[in-house]
UniProtKB/TrEMBL annotation:
Record: residues binding substrate: S20, H21, N22, E23, G24, K25, S82, F164, G165, Y166, D167, K187, H192, R193
Residues given in the record as Mg(2+) binding sites: E52, D81
Reactions performed catalytically: dITP + H2O = dIMP + diphosphate + H(+); XTP + H2O = XMP + diphosphate + H(+); ITP + H2O = IMP + diphosphate + H(+)
Species in which this protein is naturally found: Marinicauda salina
Record-annotated active site: D81 (proton acceptor)
PANTHER family: INOSINE TRIPHOSPHATE PYROPHOSPHATASE, INOSINE TRIPHOSPHATE PYROPHOSPHATASE/HAM1 PROTEIN
Biological function: Pyrophosphatase that catalyzes the hydrolysis of nucleoside triphosphates to their monophosphate derivatives, with a high preference for the non-canonical purine nucleotides XTP (xanthosine triphosphate), dITP (deoxyinosine triphosphate) and ITP. Seems to function as a house-cleaning enzyme that removes non-canonical purine nucleotides from the nucleotide pool, thus preventing their incorporation into DNA/RNA and avoiding chromosomal lesions.
A biological-process GO annotation: nucleotide metabolic process
Name the UniProt record assigns to this protein: dITP/XTP pyrophosphatase
CC cofactor: Mg(2+)
Pfam families: Ham1p_like (PF01725)
Length: 207
């Protein structure tokens, strides 16, 4: 393709701003980008505000967060908007996954709400998936977005204290343990975030 490409601004920048205020995500993204010689700083670490997530899609919110951080920092920014989609709840909590945990965030409460709504639905379909949209934005306005998913089933009660958010109730399809019980490396081999990241890497680094 002719015209400006994203390859240079993103693949040559030594530091990306990770446009997230979620420590669990920042750690996972740090693990994923380390092999590419990139360092990352979380948005809170450089004093950026958390923008209001006004879009109704993961890609829309990821772009909104990446743009805001690139503009405020003058550096390439990577944002992640992600969440849990429960089939029997028509995809809820979806983009509201963080908001179901209330303020301050309490994911025990969010997981209990998922289980309660599932029981109220009367459905015995426990399938769910995690979705992750990763957006890259450069200060000059260039941007790209990639989406990844992982399919699985919901378990109850929650199991494991690794990971973050809804990990203790999510068991990836074909596995016997939840993301909450998994080693970080095992989660990185199959997660929605890793799936989106593989697409980003192929595009930005050609790898
Ligand atoms: O917006 P930022 O600042 O990045 O942080 P956030 O926690 O608000 O993130 P989101 O708006 O993308 O909300 C997504 C929520 O979905 C949940 N989630 C996303 N990825 C997850 C994962 O890998 N494991 C468990 N829960 C996850 C998690 O609870 C997040 O808070
Ligand atoms: Mg958020």
């Amino acid at each position: 393709m002719d015209g400006p490409t994203l390859t240079d601004p993103f693949s040559t920048a030594p530091r990306w701003v990770i446009a997230s205020h979620n420590e669990g995500k920042i750690k996972e993204i740090g693990d994923l980008i380390a092999p590419y010689g990139l360092a990352a700083e979380g948005a809170a670490a450089i004093g950026l505000e958390e923008p209001e997530e006004t879009e109704t899609s993961f890609t829309g919110n990821a772009l909104l967060k990446a743009r805001a951080a690139a503009k405020a920092s003058g550096r390439p920014a990577l944002a992640d908007d992600s969440g849990l989609e429960v089939a029997a709840l028509d995809g809820a909590p979806g983009v509201y996954s963080a908001r179901w945990a209330g303020e301050p965030r309490d994911f025990r409460r969010a997981m209990e709400r998922v289980e309660a709504e599932l029981a109220a639905s009367g459905s015995d379909d426990r399938s769910a998936r995690f979705v992750c949209a990763l957006a890259l934005a450069a200060p000059d306005g260039e941007e790209r977005v990639y989406e990844g998913t992982v399919e699985g089933e919901l378990v109850w009660p929650p199991r494991g204290d690794r990971g973050f958010g809804y990990d203790p109730i999510f068991q990836p399809r074909g596995e016997a343990i939840t993301f909450g019980e998994m080693e970080p490396a095992a989660k990185h081999a199959m997660s929605h975030r890793a799936d989106a990241f593989r697409k980003l890497v192929k595009d930005v680094f050609g790898a």
